[in-house]
């Protein structure tokens, strides 16, 4: 821990009780603020990073501070001490149900827009024999409109998370997903389905930002990477459930029975309600409580629940002191730099540069071509005359689940950068093989086996590299002052990339077939080059250490990426 409670009163030889300690937590930071406010009011010339460091360190001896440029850096914090990993694991699993809903959405959307009953009811074009079908652009819109909802979710979460907290935001998002399901159930035309898909995208977009952020804030640095991966793991479980559900509906119900697409929708609504109720059981992030509310008791209560400790346990009190110390450093930076301290564009150290890195990480993740398989896998394998195309998404989902489970181990053992570089090389090679095999063996029975094997290998590699690692790295890159804003911007941009890919794939596939994989291969190679030169190693690295190195070494990768 950063220090003991009685370090706040070093002159006293008597033990400090819990009430005195709680008062000291607030009083010694109030003293810091008064010193700073007085200096600002007097327009003194000694208002500098050094002045703030002296004020903070003088009132809290366990702070280790360094001033660099125009920013105070909390140079070292020891790992949080926890009694048991079990409560943290339980709460992580509950938060990860938001990822389960997202995965279920991925696993069902591609199948629903192709399932006969749905096409019969909502198709916007008739063939020569009178059968209803979707135009390629309409199909692309039904799938991709959710990505526009995800784009909007970045701006929504940027406003709601700081205001009402992560728990309330996530629970509300799951209820919005349920509203989208209800609209789809009563939709008379595909236009209403498009609106419902937008709401679904808004909900899952919030969850993709808030779930990893929530998990990273309630877990200590030592377990942060592993536990954050559970969100991705639950996403893959959701994909499997969705794929199995679509296979069941396609084989169980006739094409003239609307239950063929209504059943998967109803099950998605049930999962969203389950997630909303479960997430509400998780304590609010202590970091958010320390930032938002000047209520030490609430912070202590949240920490005690997360660590399965008594609310007056010494470790809980010490962690409370630590959180308020970090907030004191952040307030001092804000006092010293004004709005610049929270500005993505002008903030230091290198906030804009770091945000651009996060945007491009998500961008290259999308351009690996993963959604080429998950969103349109059914369409692809129908096009090459696979007899039971609904079995393919199930197979891909199971492989995704197995290797995503394995990623929990690999992420804890290997550097993030090494996994991303391995993924870039492997995924680009596999996509080239997929494209060549599809071109040479086009429309031949022999093409099915190699294409299926390559697809399985692609999903396996993605599931232990770019799939989970992108979200983990981005959740570890930003300090609390800009974390919500930066991650929301990155998430919104990811959804724009997703929208572009999802919208154009049906049209591109119609004209160039599997040749579209060549473009994804090239983009993945570019992603590997980007990772090599610009992405920092965040494994077992606190954001305060990243801040220090960004401040000291303008080009962070020279110091951290080796």
From TrEMBL:
Q: Can you say what this protein is called?
A: Sugar transporter
Q: Where in the cell is it found?
A: Membrane
* Bilayer topology annotation: Multi-pass membrane protein
Task: Provide the leader sequence positions.
Answer: none
GO terms for cellular component: plasma membrane
Which GO molecular function annotations are given, in alphabetical order?
carbohydrate:proton symporter activity
InterPro entries associated with the record: MFS_dom, MFS_sugar_transport-like, MFS_Sugar_Transporters, MFS_trans_sf, Sugar/inositol_transpt, Sugar_transporter_CS
What would be one Pfam family of this protein? Sugar_tr
Stretches that traverse the bilayer = 81-104, 137-156, 168-188, 194-215, 227-249, 261-282, 351-378, 390-412, 419-441, 447-474, 486-505, 511-535
Keywords linked to the UniProt accession? Membrane, Sugar transport, Transmembrane, Transmembrane helix, Transport
- Protein family according to the UniProt entry: Belongs to the major facilitator superfamily. Sugar transporter (TC 2.A.1.1) family.
Domain Major facilitator superfamily (MFS) profile: residue ranges: 91-539
Indicate the principal place this protein occupies in or around the cell. Answer: membrane
Query: Which segments carry the region annotation Disordered?
Result: 1-20
Gene3D superfamilies the record matches: MFS general substrate transporter like domains
The gene for this chain is: HXT11
């Amino acid at each position: 821990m950063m220090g003991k409670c009685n370090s706040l009163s070093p002159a006293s030889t008597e033990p400090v009780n819990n009430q005195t300690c709680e008062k000291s937590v607030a009083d010694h930071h109030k003293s810091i603020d008064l010193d700073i406010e007085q200096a600002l009011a007097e327009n003194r010339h000694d208002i500098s990073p050094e002045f703030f460091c002296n004020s903070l360190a003088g009132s809290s001896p366990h702070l280790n501070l360094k001033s660099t440029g125009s920013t105070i850096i909390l140079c070292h914090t020891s790992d949080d001490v926890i009694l048991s990993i079990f409560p943290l694991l339980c709460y992580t699993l509950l938060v990860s149900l938001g990822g389960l809903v997202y995965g279920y959405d991925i696993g069902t959307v591609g199948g629903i827009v192709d399932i006969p009953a749905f096409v019969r009811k909502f198709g916007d074009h008739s063939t020569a024999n009178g059968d209803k079908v979707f135009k390629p652009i309409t199909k692309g819109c039904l799938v991709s409109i959710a990505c526009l909802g995800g784009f909007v979710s970045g701006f929504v979460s940027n406003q709601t998370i700081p205001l009402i907290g992560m728990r309330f935001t996530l629970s509300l998002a799951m209820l919005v997903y349920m509203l989208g399901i209800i609209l789809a159930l009563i939709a008379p035309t595909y236009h209403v389905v498009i609106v419902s898909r937008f709401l679904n995208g808004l909900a899952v977009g919030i969850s993709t930002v808030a779930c990893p952020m929530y998990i990273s804030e309630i877990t200590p640095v030592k377990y942060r990477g592993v536990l954050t991966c559970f969100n991705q793991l639950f996403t893959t479980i959701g994909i499997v459930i969705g794929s199995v559900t679509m296979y069941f509906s396609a084989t169980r119900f006739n094409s003239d029975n609307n239950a063929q697409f209504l059943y998967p929708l109803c099950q998605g609504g049930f999962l969203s309600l389950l997630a909303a109720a479960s997430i509400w059981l998780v304590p609010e992030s202590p970091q958010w409580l320390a930032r938002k509310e000047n209520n030490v008791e609430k912070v202590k209560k949240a920490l005690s629940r997360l660590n399965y400790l008594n609310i007056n346990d010494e470790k809980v009190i010490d962690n409370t002191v630590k959180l308020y110390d970090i907030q004191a450093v952040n307030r001092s930076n804000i006092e010293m730099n004004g709005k610049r301290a929270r500005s993505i564009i002008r903030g230091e150290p290198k906030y804009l540069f770091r945000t651009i890195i996060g945007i491009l990480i998500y961008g290259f993740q999308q351009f690996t071509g993963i959604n080429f398989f998950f969103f349109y896998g059914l369409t692809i394998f129908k096009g090459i005359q696979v007899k039971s195309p609904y079995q393919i998404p199930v197979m891909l989902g199971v492989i995704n689940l197995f290797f995503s489970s394995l990623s929990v181990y690999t992420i804890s053992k290997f550097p993030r950068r090494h996994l991303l570089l391995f993924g870039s090389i492997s995924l680009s090679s596999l996509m080239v093989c997929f494209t060549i095999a599809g071109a040479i063996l086009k429309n031949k029975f022999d093409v099915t086996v190699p294409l299926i094997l390559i697809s399985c290998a692609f999903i396996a590699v993605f599931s232990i590299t770019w799939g989970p690692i992108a979200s983990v790295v981005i959740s570890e890159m930003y300090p609390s002052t800009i974390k919500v804003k930066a991650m929301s911007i990155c998430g919104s941009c990811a959804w724009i990339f997703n929208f572009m890919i999802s919208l154009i794939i049906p049209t591109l596939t119609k004209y160039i077939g599997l040749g579209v994989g060549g473009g994804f291969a090239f983009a993945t190679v570019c992603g590997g080059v980007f990772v090599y030169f610009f992405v920092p190693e965040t494994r077992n690295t606190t954001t305060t250490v990243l801040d220090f190195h960004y401040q000291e070494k303008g080009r962070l990768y020279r110091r951290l990426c080796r």
